[in-house]
């Protein structure tokens, strides 16, 4: 049946040559090469669960009085958006499960992207000829962060209202265009009654389309260039050795996909996430502790430990929130974009690399990556300094100063330690320096081991 | 041994089948997210272990070798594409002046296409500088009740709105009653500030009466309510704007003007 379909298609499209090679395409066997796939499966789960949620979510800021089954909110005025989230969570069969899987998948998605990116960075997989895919990957990361934020903002509960208020304040802090941009994106001063519909269009149409396009381009480029591979026997810059796509790798990938979904189902079933009915609608209140989803934690931390310096120039103002809220993300984005080009320039190596480095092979790059992670980690933990102050009985002010110094000095220490560690490992040797032997078969049948120089 | 492996895979697949049936039953019974999710997870977990076993024990471990032969392409192809492009450009731009008019037409269309962006929002029109507070506006609580001079005890705090604009974010303010003599400019101990944090716009929702500090729960900016809401600590770059109030003869607290400064976080047009 399938065989006849393949022939039928080849008659019309001439797909035989492509499929013949595609089915036997080599996929290098290394666990770290499957990290990116976790993200692909997360995206599929997000689209599937998101479609389900979209059938009930009402993207409207029209105020109504709640009369649903949740007693504690009865009689409270709220937006239709928030009421519909309550409906999905508390009344629609399987609604709560799907909503929690959706939220968890978003959290795992970002985590997966970061780990995948770490693998690419620390093995030098971004080098020529893969600069373009690195840049697409960075864009995907920022697109997913933004997509996650719009999703977090749509329920119009207390926390999402606070998050939006902060985002708008960051927007208005931009010189020249900030206030205009905020008024045009929101349709007026915060909060407007057109905000949730616009978030909704962004969340379910614009960003998913962009992310899906980005993923498609990412995978097509990967397909065309073929995987990089770690050095090993028979592996050269001119070949790519691994399991065939069909059937071996397909079955492995099914296992990974099913495992990813199983974990997301367990999280969605047993680990409560964002119980919006407890927060109540956003009005004039605020709650303690208030934290964003984990992947915005670095920005939250930067806003907390950022200097309280406003710049006043000729009757104009650049408020303090500009430095951590706008400048920092722009610098980070530029930084990540520059990685492949800076690496080539600093190492004086623009040549093509399909064989990967191990982290120890290039101590400076590895140390740099560690410094970056330490910096972002400092910002991330600063984002919950109030909770730490509460539970560790440390004055909040002391924690703020600790994180300020940590973000400045920590990366330097991280660089030095990682560099020393990697350099030592490199000296001790590894695959490259392992004694090379050749097995020689004796005429009578046995084998001899012969050491090569 | 082989038999055990095949049985393990079969058991995994049976788990997957049981999980799927379990989910259908849990759905039919409208049971909790826990049961539904656990059943679904069991189904996928069974699939995962079965596929893993299949890949490891049943399929032969083959290695295939692909050659990297797509890039870069042969020299004559590379030269050919550059030549083809240059050829086309030369043909297109033979009529120099016509090319320029074409650029202008496309550019103008692009400019025109930007204009509908104007429909997205109103102009800011200085709206961020003002709120709904006017001279004589009564201070009311979120439930609409107007505040009188004896409504708050010393150390008390209340979120207030202008009468008729309850819930208006730009106008939301916090009224505190300080001990006698804590601030010379308080009205019978009452003093009011914008409730929007000047750092990132969160409601300044916490008040500690002992040292009259207003605290923003989002990024922990701390303002001194007895000292013109000046910043004691945290990332805020300026004090909370003051809402000038007076205690009128009728016993009601009323604003005597709008906030002394634009409420909320700073922006470019703000001096």
Protein described:
The complex is a heterodimer of chains A (453) and B (271). By secondary structure, chain A is mostly helical. Chain A folds into 2 domains: 30-301, Cytochrome Bc1 Complex, Chain C (Up-down Bundle), CATH 1.20.810; 358-453, no CATH class. Chain A has 16 helices and 8 strands. By secondary structure, chain B is an alpha+beta fold. Chain B is 33% helix and 16% strand. Chain B is built from 4 helices and 12 strands. The longest helix of chain B has 27 residues, at 2-28. The mean pLDDT of chain B is 94.
Helix-strand pattern of chain B, N to C? HHEHHEEEEEEEEEEE
* CATH architectural type of the largest domain in chain A: Up-down Bundle
| CATH class category name of the largest domain in chain A | Mainly Alpha
Shape of chain B: flat
Order of SSEs of chain A, N→C? Answer: HHEHEEHHHHHHEHHHEEHHHHEE
Give me some keywords for this one.
heterodimer; A: 453 residues; mainly alpha; Cytochrome Bc1 Complex, Chain C; two-stranded antiparallel sheet; two-stranded antiparallel ribbon; 7% strand; B: 271 residues; alpha+beta; Rieske Iron-sulfur Protein; five-stranded antiparallel beta sheet; 4 helices; 33% helix; 16% strand
